[in-house]
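Two proteins were folded this term; both appear here.
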Amino acid sequence: MHLVGQRALQIAVVLIGLNLDLEQLIASSVEYSALVSACVIMTLVVGLALGSLIYDNRKYNLLVCSGTAICGGTAVASLSTTIGARPEQTGIVLTIVFCLNAIALLIFPSIGEWLEMSQEQFGVWCAVAIHDTSSVIATAARFGDDSAQIATILKLLRTLWLIPLLILVSLVENRQHSRLGVPWFVGLFLLAAGLGTLLSIPDLLMYSSSWLSQTLLVIALYSFGTEITRANVLNFRGAVVFHGTALWMAIATGSLLFIKETV
């Protein structure tokens, strides 16, 4: 079921690219690349420091921090192979990520409306503060189409940080046969954005791709939700839950305050 959700999400992101303007994509990436990079680096540094104070488990620490800083379940699953994490360790961190994603999906739009955030502000906030791409897009889409577009662009920019992280961890772990999980759908997303910009695509095809994308996002959210099993919940460790929750709340609150003042 996880594979179904992952493939549905990847295809949905590619289809979203058809509705984007490549010039806007490049402009947004340049404008916000410093903010996205700062959030990723700060989350990793603060998270690793906090984790080392809470418990003496390097693998849990790396999984929680990478999932929070970069791309949620994708980062956790990719990194777990590189560092040789046990299945139960990966499952516990994935469950925490999915639960926090669900909370963000429920409360972020209400917070955005209460603070009277603009479409741009809310999209940027979702992109830097929510773990998984599917949850970022779904949450931003609840606030508006413009918010969903900017959130999609910046979240994919944030996801690219997975590549240097995996390379660095692979070198540190000295695992020559570690599998490097590069998100291939980012390239197809850029290609679709280019085609959407250069070609005159019929309105019916654009509408159909948008509808199919939203449908696939719903399927992805449901599939990822099924990953939260009773066994994983019963195996929760208080220190890991506290670490993941505290780190997420810190980055969500800090980025919100900064975005409200500067964007």
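Next, the second protein.
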Amino acid sequence: MKQGNSVKTVGFGIVTVVIAIAIGLIAVEWALRTMAGSTQSGESMDEGFILFDSRLGWKLNPGWQGTHRHHDFEVHYQVSELGFRGDAFEFSGASQRVFFLGDSFTFGLGVDEGETFPDYLNRSTASAHSDFFNVGVPGYAPDQQLILLEDLLSYRPDTLVWVIYLGNDLLDIRYPFPLQAGYGKPYYVLEGNRLRLENSPVPLKAKTPKYRAMSVSSAILENFDLYPAWQDFLADSQIGTRINSIIGFDEDALQSHMKERIKNDIALFLAMTDRARTMITGQGGEMAFVLMPGSGYFRENTVPGIYQKTAASSLLSELKERGYRVANLGPELASSINSGRLLFHRRA
């Protein structure tokens, strides 16, 4: 009788421990999901920042001013009557006109007026001989930037600095909807050596379910099985995702897949740069490039980190081979991090 009670006591203890562990795991998972949800939802922008545009997909609202609130910052933006950040263009004498073309990193999403890198350049010694202008538009992919360049030619830039965001620029040129924006856009298809414009004029319609289901990670992986089935099961939870990050994946196989897939994206992008160079040099100007990493670049042994470094290496090689000046900011920013200087928002 005593032995039976002992077995029941042990059994009850085991069940209690299992239940306690399960409850603990559920509580941790709930906390992680809540934290992720609050981080993603804690953002707002004053109304009217952008307008639909059938040629470009969207554009900045000329003359708009407003506040952008985010879990990392609260900043003020001002859009000129020309539709670009800051004041209207003012050209000074014989100074060189340097235009920075890009997306939200160039626009300066997350920093106040006067704090974008064109602003800093205009306050530096470089401004003695050059005027720097910010023509970045949040969310724009290189295809939209190329179309926008046609409008910029009327200002006769001496140098066009094309800022390429390594996180998704080469991915977005594949699709009629950007991966991280809800609006449609035009895009190019490469046929031989010729570019054909698709989805133009851009229809005013919601992002379709196919593209809403896509993410930067799914576009990077594209039919590549990162994990075996049991790790895929873990990936459905916040706790499992963290376990997978510890276990890791076959980085060599992923990098090989990326190098092969990115060839098509690079070829399409280079065709766009050829068209842009013809437009710029036809006016006596020149082009240069900046390769801008996202924070994922600095996370070792991750899908974004491996992808961005692969994209940077391929782009750097191809652009330099064509004689362009290229600044690859990844190594420089990594050096600043190692010295204790963080030059970007941690969750950017």
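The chain has a mean pLDDT of 86. The two ends are 65 Å apart (CA to CA). These notes refer to the second protein only.
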